[in-house]
Each structure stands twice: as C-alpha cells, then as structure tokens.
Design goal:
The chain is α+β, with helices and mostly antiparallel strands. It contains 5 helices and 4 strands, in the order H-H-E-H-H-E-E-E-H.
C-alpha cells in the first residue's frame, strides 16, 4: 500500500474516531441527562410519597387523638351518670324509708299529693288509690281534703278510697267513670321531674 493510501486511511480512521468519540460523548451526556432526570423524578416521587405519608400519618394521629378524647368524654359522662343514678337510687331509698315509717312530713306530703291530683282533675266524684299501709292514714282525712278541693275548684268533690296500689308512696286519683286518671305517686313525681333534678344533682355533685 502506498504512503498516500496510508494517509487517506489514517485520515478516515482519525475522522471516524473523532465522530465515534463525539457520539459517545453525546450519548454519555444523554445518559447523564436521563439519569439526572430519573434521579430528580425519583426524589420528587419519594418526597411526594413521604409528604402523602406524613399527611396520612397526621390525619391518623388526629383521628386517634379525637377518638381518645371522645372515649375519655364518654367515660367521664358514663361515670357521672353512674354517680347521678346512685344519688337518685339513694334518694328513692330514703323516700321509701320515710314513707314507710309514719313520718309526719310524709303524711303531710301525701295529703297534699291527693289534694293536688283532685284539683288537677277538677274535682267531682273521685276514687283515691294509695298503698295499703297509707289507707288508714288518709281514710279519716278524705272528707276534709274533699272540702278543700271543692273550695278551690268550685266543684262539689267527693273522695272515696279505692283499691290499694304497689308504690313507694303518694296516690293515684281516678274519676268515678274511669275516664281520667292522675298519677301523683312518688315514683311518677320523680320521673316527671327527673330531667330538672338530674341537672341540679349534676351541678351539686360536679361543681365541688
């Protein structure tokens, strides 16, 4: 091969090498670019996942705290309710004891409860129902109570002792024809006033 041919081949090889090097450099640059973008995208995705994870973690934390506060509040209310019910139970027991011991205050209250119920009905011919042990207490006072109700309502009133009832105390009054009944027993009065009493008991018990 002549020296001229060698020079041409050498020149072609050199030019090819330069092009090859340039292509390799460009390819490497593209690879680096792709790798950089992939890393950036991966970091962004990682941060996004972490951010979402943190949001979910924060939400779950707040949910746990909220549930804990709700459970604590429910436990507190349940505890107060137990105390209030215990107070009502104790009061009921004391009223039952008072009503079964011929206490003068109870007798006075019983007469007033009969009078209130008779006046609420509007007087007239009424049947008075009390527990068996109270029958003898009120039987001799019915005419006096009837006169007081007559004066209060303006309607001639007559009270007759009826069948005994199973109650702590108080009375149930019924019209002679059975159309109207007023329950003025201790139990019914407690039930009617329980909402108001519950609030008052709660204020007394939990404001200390």
């Amino acid at each position: 091969m002549s020296s001229g041919t060698d020079k041409i081949i050498s020149s072609i090889m050199s030019e090819a090498q330069d092009k090859a090097d340039k292509i390799i450099q460009e390819a490497q640059a593209e690879v680096d670019k792709i790798n950089a973008k992939a890393t950036k995208d991966a970091d962004a995705e990682k941060n996004k996942i972490l951010e979402n994870g943190k949001k979910q973690s924060d939400m779950r934390y707040q949910q746990i705290i909220s549930e804990a506060k709700m459970n604590a509040r429910r436990a507190e209310l349940d505890g107060k309710e137990e105390v209030i019910e215990a107070a009502f139970s104790k009061a009921t027991d004391e009223l039952a004891q008072m009503a079964s011991s011929n206490d003068a205050k109870y007798t006075e209250s019983l007469i007033n409860m009969i009078k209130e119920a008779a006046a609420e009905i509007g007087g007239g011919k009424l049947i008075v129902k009390v527990k068996n042990s109270d029958a003898s207490t009120v039987s001799g006072k019915l005419s006096t109570i009837a006169n007081e109700v007559t004066n209060e309502t303006g309607v001639q009133t007559e009270l007759t002792l009826g069948d005994s009832i199973d109650v702590i105390g108080g009375a149930v009054l019924v019209t002679a024809n059975g159309d109207i009944e007023v329950n003025n027993t201790i139990e019914s009065r407690l039930d009617r006033n329980k909402k108001i009493l519950r609030s008052e008991v709660a204020n007394i018990l939990f404001s200390l």
